[in-house]
Structure formats: C-alpha cells, structure tokens
Amino acid sequence: MGVSGTRRPTTDISSHCRGASQVSVLIITRSVDNDSVKLVSEHLFKMGKRVIRLDTDWYPTHIKITGTTGGSTRITIGDESTTLDDLDSVWYRRFHAGGNLPHDLGQEYREVCVHESRRTLYGTIAALPCFQLDPLQCVRGTDHKELQLSRALHHGMDVPRTIFTNDADAVREFYHQEGGEIVTKMQSSFAVYPDGEEQVVFTSKVKAEQMEEIENIKYAPMIFQEFLPKKLDIRSTVVGNRVFSAAIDSQKSSLTEVDWRRDGANTLSNWFPYQLPEEIEKKLLAVVADFGLNYAAADFVLTKDDRMVFLEINAGGEWLWMSSHVGLPIDEALAEALTDPSVRSGSR
User: Fold this and answer.
1) 182, 310, 321, 326: which could form a disulfide with 157 (CB 3.0–4.6 Å)?
2) CA-to-CA distance for 135 and 131, rounded, in angstroms?
3) Class of domain 13-133
4) What radius of gyration, in Å, describes the C-alpha atoms of the chain?
5) What is the fold, at CATH topology level, of the domain defined by 161-226?
C-alpha cells in the first residue's frame, strides 16, 4: 500500500519501454504510484512483451501525444518517440492528466488546461483499437453505489438494507426501523482538513446525538445502511475470470470494527487467504462482467449469523497489499489478463 515518490519523465523512452521491438502493453498511471505497476511490468517483460508506462500527470507538459483519425497515435517523451499502433492491450491503472501543469497559469486558465488535457487523453486512450483493462466508460459505470447494489441484487447477492437520501424524515424512519443500529457512508472517498490536518471520512455508526442534527442532510445526500455485526471483512479481487480473496477479523480492534480502513496501514499483517463460496464467486463474476470489467475489488462482510453480504465494488481498488502480505498472485494474473484472452471475463 506504500506510494513511491514522484518520478520525473525521462527523455529516454527506452526506460519506459522494455521487451520486444513493438510496444505490446500501455500502462496508464501517474508518477506517484506504488509498486503494483513495477510488479505487473516485470511479469510482462518475462513474457517477452514490450511495455510503455504513461505517467499521465506529466501530460501535456512533458509528454506529447498525437492521434490522427484513421491513422497512427504517436507518443513522444523528450527526443524519443514511438507509435501505439500495434498495442495488444492497455492497463488503465491511474489517471491524473494535467496534474503537473504550473499553478502560475492562473486558476481559471489552469482549470481549462486541465479539463482539455483530461478530455483529450481520455479520448485518445478510449480510441485505441485494442483490449483495455478496463474501458474508461465501464470504469466510470461503477461510480454509482445505487447501481452496484441494484446489479448485485439482480444477480442474487445479499446486500445491506440501504437508503440514499437527503430527506431527514426518511433517515429518522430508517433509524427507528433498524432499532438505532445504522451506519452512514459517502458516495466517494474524500478527506476534510480542519486546522490543516487531513481527516478521511470513513463508514461510521450513527449516534443518537447525531440524529438531533440530521436536518443538515438537506445540504448533501448520504447513504444509510443497516449495521452488520461481523465475523469477518473480506476483500475479493476479480481479475478476468478469477477471484482472489482475503479476510481480516476486523472485530479485534475498536478502530476497525465498523470500517477496517480506519486503521488500514496497521492491519496489513492481519489479512489471510480466504475462499469465497463457489456460488458467491459466480455471482461476483457476473456482476463484474455486467459492468463490462475485467478488474474490480469487491468488499463483503461475513456476519455473525453467517450472511455473506456484498457491500460494493471499486473498479480501481488497490490490491498490492494482498500480493505482498497475503501472497495472492494478483500481479501475475493481471499480466496474464493483459496478454491472454482465455483468462478474461466470460471465458470460464
């Protein structure tokens, strides 16, 4: 889960490309990333594949890309250049186009430049005529938790009783229906900075005193769910037609009993391999395929009464700690999915 320092783009494109004479795999990431790109790249090199790493935050200031309708797409870093015409696949890992644009452009002009850079690079990637893990429009399709839960239900999964609302009366009714045992979460991950200190917003139990201020929900809708007494938290990572799962006894610490991420960095050694029931794996694969994905990280809860409850999926969820601390071969599976159609979604 560690993050490496910012990589400045080199003027030697050979340091971005290794392997055979033609670029086989394009990796879309950013200069501040962890070792996941390195691990997957090493497997691709062993397969004899040529890899180019595109650190999107250095576009457009240090990386030039030109695409021609019906023609070639060329990438230039410094004095070195290569085409992307014969790609086998794209791994869409992270995206931060315009991230290193200078701030002295002025806020308004910089925002325009960032917007145009993102739109152009998004479009260039989406138009590349090769397998993509995963297509941008499919990744964006998972942004909505309402749709995730709806599709999970459609495929026969157990999901928490949930409301999405900005109506205080609806929250009060749900709170009483659940005997005051509910949690709240946000649609997206974010942090607030009181007094300049970062505080990440996690899933939390709703306290009685917080219900006295519930009218404030009119300013921003939230998600409310039944509180699930847990045996285990489970993270299942789907790569193509395979599922890799690990679990943690999050109930050993008050910090992690509602949301294990609250003390995530200190729980790495507490995760262990876990086998989802076969029928749950099949349903999870169906949900991921329904979104058109070959990669997703899914969170489940095994409750004290042995319900296996689906919580959510993340099309860009992290997996590095599951390889480094649990020993799951997710890096190898990603390299195989990028090069072998037989292990992709729908092929099992």
Assistant:
1) 310
2) 8
3) alpha beta
4) 22
5) Dna Ligase; domain 1 (3.30.1490)
Question: Which segment, 184-193, 314-323, 328-337, is predicted with the most confidence on average?
Answer: 328-337
Residue from 177, 36, 180, 174 nearest 94 by CA:
36
Contacts of residue 315, Cβ cutoff 8 Å, sequence gap at least 6: 134, 138, 139, 142, 291, 293, 295, 296
List the beta strands (DSSP E) in the chain: 17-18, 23-29, 50-55, 63-67, 73-77, 80-83, 89-92, 131-133, 162-165, 182-185, 191-192, 199-200, 204-205, 222-226, 230-239, 242-248, 272-274, 295-303, 308-314
For the 230-343 domain, the top CATH level (class) is: alpha beta
Torsions phi, psi for 281 (to 5 deg): -60, -45
How far, in Å, CA of 54 to CA of 58, rounded?
Answer: 8
pLDDT at 71: 79
| 239-294 tens-digit pLDDT | 999 999 999 987 777 777 777 777 767 787 889 999 999 999 999 999 999 999 99
- Tally of residues, the chain: 348
Assigned token pair, 103: 């701030």
